[in-house]
């Protein structure tokens, strides 16, 4: 199906800028609804990555529950009061003061440990790992329990009245939360110790990226159709400028199709999740039927619902962000300040698994149609060459004098060579293998260089289909780190 041609009679300036002509003023895209809807609307991902949300929910819930339980004041002689709280008012006050003091102390320790963990993760591994720490549900749950214990104890303490029966259920809840706070504190310390291990961080990033791959991509050979060769390129359309700045977090096909159908255009989207966008830069090209104009400002406001911009990258649809985090760990490990090539090789092992998974997915641009079958949008995407370069380029340049790093890269490429599905994938793997070999430093000893060259040869064997020869070795030297 051929895409509608661009608007006839439009001026060159309009085609270049994509702005609607105005009388006596300069049109600005992004004021008002477009910016707020595209940038500032909180999402479930932002809520998950915030440290304040669940503690705030826990504090509010604890306050309301405590107020309700303060109304339950059975007579001291009743069975409920004797079974729930056999003590007097002074012992109740002592309990509440103890729980409140202990819980706020534990909460302060928890916050301090979290800040220290964030600092260590940022300095030793990658600043992009901070989001993974912040969205850890166990950290948020620990803070919520500790804050709730403090709020319940303080609210109950405020509601004690010497002239009225004791609120025994509120006292029981405070006691239980105090015990829970002690258990949570011990569990939190153990969790932080495990969380700060580099293997745990890499496993967490790998797990999130696997989920993103499953969400963002269809299996290889399935999914929406690819653009046909007769579709015109973005140079023929009216450019739609960005309404704000940020990183593309989510692209929503349904609002995109709705916007294109509403304005009777076909959209060639120019950005994908993970791309950096500056306000005013083009994000799409719009093609209208002959003789019709493109309402650029209205279209940009509608696109703000479909292309969500945020101040940082997220894992929702951005598969490259997970590979970037793992690559950051590898780069930090090969830096002179750390000098830990083994950790770099292990990070590349996680990258190898993700790349093999990507090879089993349908990569590249795709066409989106409306309910009537008409083409409404063409969505760009990353290909295997991009992902291979993302993982290999910086690491091979930084580790050019370290055979452990170069052989780890070639092991990665051997695995991707075996998993290659078509000639394009095989060519991309072969190109990267040649670059790794060319990056081998002159200061590497001949024996170490021979190991790198041997693995490069094995990548070629895997590409040729001789998988057994590609992996067969003497003592596991081509598999071990």
From TrEMBL:
Residues 13-27 have a biased composition (Basic residues). This is DUF2254 domain-containing protein. The keyword Transmembrane applies. InterPro entries: DUF2254_membrane. Residues 1-42 are annotated as: Disordered. The chain crosses the membrane at residues 49-72, 92-118, 139-157, 169-193. Keywords: Membrane, Transmembrane, Transmembrane helix. It comes from Vallicoccus soli. The keyword Ligase does not apply. It comes from the Bacteria. Pfam families: DUF2254.
